[in-house]
Automatic annotation (TrEMBL):
Major localisation: membrane
Residue ranges crossing the lipid bilayer per the database entry: 29-51, 57-78, 180-207, 273-292, 312-333, 372-392, 398-416, 437-458
Domain (Amino acid transporter transmembrane) ranges: 26-456
The protein, known as: Amino acid transporter transmembrane domain-containing protein
InterPro entries membership: AA_transpt_TM
Keyword entries, A-Z: Amino-acid transport, Auxin signaling pathway, Cell membrane, Membrane, Symport, Transmembrane, Transmembrane helix, Transport
Family: Belongs to the amino acid/polyamine transporter 2 family. Amino acid/auxin permease (AAAP) (TC 2.A.18.1) subfamily.
Domain of life, per lineage: Eukaryota
The species this protein was found in: Glycine max
Cleavable signal peptide: none
Lineage: Eukaryota, Viridiplantae, Streptophyta, Embryophyta, Tracheophyta
Any one Gene Ontology BP term: amino acid transmembrane transport
Length: 471
């Protein structure tokens, strides 16, 4: 329960409390499903058409469906580990890391934290890249509309990244950002807005008969595409799809909203099936329609790659939606990282005024509580993330790297190992071997996607001068 300073909290009727002493949760399968869909519908959706172009119709559809099936199975394993040791009556695990610690112990807990917070940090860099590309795309849409589609309309991303970073420094100083639910709600709504705008514009191209040629095997090897480049781009495409499927970082946050009966794991399993099914249908629509519209020339992001020029206002509006979504999503991802560092500093130096003391500052009728450590640490973090984004502003490759980092450890490895520990699956039994084969296969996918994306980033860095990239 939240406790407000200086106020007495009246005692509650035990009937109003859950088994852990917190106010009864009221969430249900429908609400959990909407949370899942809201989380997975992000900027990564706009890269799925490019991923489909690399893989082709057969492999593209097969990979999306296969990843969906794996996700349903492993997220159901995660759902069973919400309570420890019994999945129905055991003690609640409020976070993914807490569940890993309960089932697998301290070393795995540290490994999980490293992957989890590393991915959160990477996502903030990715959101900075995405927002700047969309801001430039808005300017380009206006430029093309005024000067014609053949006009030179290339602009540096750097000023927009710097502006986005300054705005995030201001937002990062809000200590209890989770209370600003209005921003999260707007961000979620805009994510659907730009996904449907991108799909709708692609559908309009296909219906008008102006769609480009496609292939069941994806982009063909030829003068403009070597066999090696084809393989590396396929690996990056796997990373793009893997990123779009990920909501492991928030699954326990979703589960912690569910009412206690029926058991949370049973409700979450239904929500997983419904949410991932809806997610897969949306992915197939976005990826398939985008590929059908642009064929072998499918851009990395269907709203910023300018396969669409008109109606310019709709293209610009889609990119405005992306920027709004990125503003809110950045803080959703950064706040857990801020919090864990500040909690660690507080535990290490509990008597330090620099770390723990707040200084009230009045601005008219508003009072802000400024903490020097929070001000400096969070500002430095945003600056570093912005500089990294300016040095590597490559949308598809960076998204593929983020997808690779999180796919195997968070979606497959930890769920499989927790399930083995929970059910005490015997080593070398048939089930144990099948689970390890699944884990190892997904590990190979993660390694391939990571290597492909890193190669793409290094190749682009050699092609473009650092901090001089223009879109």
């Amino acid at each position: 329960m939240d406790i407000e300073a200086g106020k007495d909290i009246p005692s509650r009727d035990p009937a109003e409390l859950d088994d852990d002493g917190r106010v009864k949760r009221t969430g249900n399968v429908f609400i959990a499903t909407t949370h899942i869909v809201t989380v997975v519908v992000g900027a990564g959706v706009l890269a799925l058409a490019w991923a489909m172009a690399q893989l082709g119709w057969i492999a593209g559809i097969a990979v999306m469906v296969l990843f969906a099936c794996i996700s349903v199975y492993t997220y159901n394993l995660i759902a069973d580990c919400y309570r420890y040791p019994d999945p129905v009556s055991g003690k609640r695990n409020y976070t993914y890391m807490q569940a890993v610690d309960a089932y697998l112990g301290g070393k795995m807990h540290v490994f999980c934290g490293s992957v989890l917070y590393g991915k959160l940090a990477g996502v903030t860099v990715g959101y900075t890249i995405t927002s700047s590309i969309s801001l430039v795309a808005i300017k380009k849409a206006i430029c093309f509309h005024k000067k014609g589609h053949a006009a030179y309309c290339k602009f540096s991303n750097n000023p927009y990244m710097i502006g986005f970073g300054i705005f995030q420094i201001l937002l990062s100083q809000i200590p209890n950002f989770h209370k600003l639910t209005w921003l999260s709600t707007i961000a979620a709504a805009t994510s659907f807005g730009y996904a449907f705008i991108g799909s709708g514009l692609s559908l309009a191209v296909v219906v008008s008969g102006k769609g480009e040629a496609t292939s069941i095997f994806g982009n063909k090897v030829g003068p403009d595409l070597s066999e090696a480049d084809k393989v590396w781009k396929v690996f990056s495409a796997l990373g793009n799809i893997a990123l779009a499927c990920s909501f492991a970082t928030v699954i326990y946050d979703i589960m912690d909203t569910l009412k206690s009966y029926p058991p949370e794991n049973k409700q979450m399993k239904k929500a997983n099936v419904l949410g991932i099914t809806a997610m897969t249908i949306l992915f197939l629509l976005c990826g398939g329609l985008g590929y059908a519209a642009f064929g072998h020339d499918t851009p990395g992001n269907i709203l910023t790659g300018f396969g669409f020029y008109e109606p310019f206002w709709l293209v610009a509006l889609g990119n405005v939606f992306i920027v709004i979504h990125m503003v809110g999503a950045y803080q959703v991802m950064a706040q857990p990282l801020f919090r864990v560092i500040e909690m660690g500093a507080n535990m290490a130096w509990p008597r330090s005024d620099f770390i723990n003391k707040g200084y009230p500052i009045k601005m008219g009728s508003l009072t802000f509580n400024i903490n020097l450590f929070r001000l400096i640490w969070r500002s430095m973090y945003v600056v570093v993330a912005t500089v990294i984004a300016m040095a590597m502003p490559f949308f598809n490759e960076f998204l593929a790297l983020l997808g690779a980092i999180g796919f195997w450890p968070l979606i497959v490895f930890f769920p499989v190992q927790m399930h083995i520990a929970q059910k005490q699956v015997k080593r070398l039994s048939l089930k144990w071997c099948c689970l390890q084969i699944l884990s190892f296969s997904c590990f190979l996918v993660t390694v391939s996607a990571a290597v492909g994306s890193i190669r793409g980033i290094s190749k682009n860095i050699k092609k473009y001068k650092l901090f001089m990239y223009k879109q």
